[in-house]
Amino acid sequence: METEVLEAIDAIRPALQADGGDILFRSIDDGTTWSNIPLILANSTPDNQPTALAIASNGTLFVGTNGGNLFRVSGISMTPLTTADPAPATQVNAIAVDPEGNIVVAGHTDGVLESATGPSFTFSIIDAFASGTSVGGVAFAVDGASSAGVVTGSIYAVTAGATADGKRVFRSSNLGASFLNVTTATPAIDTSDYFFVTPHPTDGTTLYVLGQSSGFFKRTFGAP
User: Which pLDDT tens digit goes with each residue over 55-68?
Assistant: First the structure.
């Protein structure tokens, strides 16, 4: 079963290229051997500097790069996606995907948060945080299901910036139509640059946040 799961979702790692650039590798034999997956833009230009990865339960991989570009990888098949981040696009710091691989969210160093829905995965900006803000982490937290059985969830984003306005934790319970600043808590979370957010694996309303100076925090929000 372990091997079957690994083969289904692939094993992906960033690795150091001889010229100092990063490249994407795939293994289907528990890491014994690895094969390179080139990341090629629609204009045939390579962009082999992955900076963020997210894998859906169906094995589809979404990749963001230092150049601000986005890719979808299924097995060894690679498809470049068009970012909505205004040119010149900035580095993708984080990517999150819902378990079914239908909704993808990507955060950039210029504070732009964009999302796309399958099967076309056409990205559009859902928020642009305060000037000077960088999106440090994003997460899709499953917290329920619709009457039709479709998975529902909240999108979380954490940011870093030069001012207090850029150091925030945000939550959207409507797939990015609006975001609430949920940094304020009791007891208070320290003001910090935040770099990582992830939901509890069995409770999508409980989140963990990592900050540069605040340390590691846990918070249970309850249903949206």
Answer: 998 889 999 999 99
Beta-carbon contacts of residue 144 (< 8 Å; ≥ 6 apart): 151, 152, 153, 204, 223
Q: Report whether pLDDT(205) > 50.
A: yes
Considering the domain boundaries, does residue 206 fall inside one?
A: yes
What's the whole-number mean pLDDT along residues 185-190? 72
Which run of H or E residues covers position 6?
Answer: helix 2-9
Q: Kindly report the average pLDDT of the chain as a whole number.
A: 83
Domain of 217, in residue numbers? 137-164+179-224
The answer to whether residue 174 is domain-embedded is no
> 59: domain CATH number?
2.120.10.30
109, 135 Cβ separation under 8 angstroms: yes
Q: Both 150 and 92 in a single domain?
A: no
Residue range 166-192: average pLDDT? 83
Tally of structural domains, the chain: 2
pLDDT tens across 108-146, in order? Answer: 999 999 999 999 999 999 999 888 899 999 999 877 666
Distance CA(108)–CA(113), nearest Å, equals 6
Whole-structure pTM value: 0.84
In terms of domains, do 111 and 17 share one?
yes
Based on the fold, state whether residues 14 and 104 are members of the same structural domain.
yes
Cβ count near 98 (within 10 Å): 23
Q: 124, 91, 86, 83: which is closest to 108 by C-alpha?
A: 91
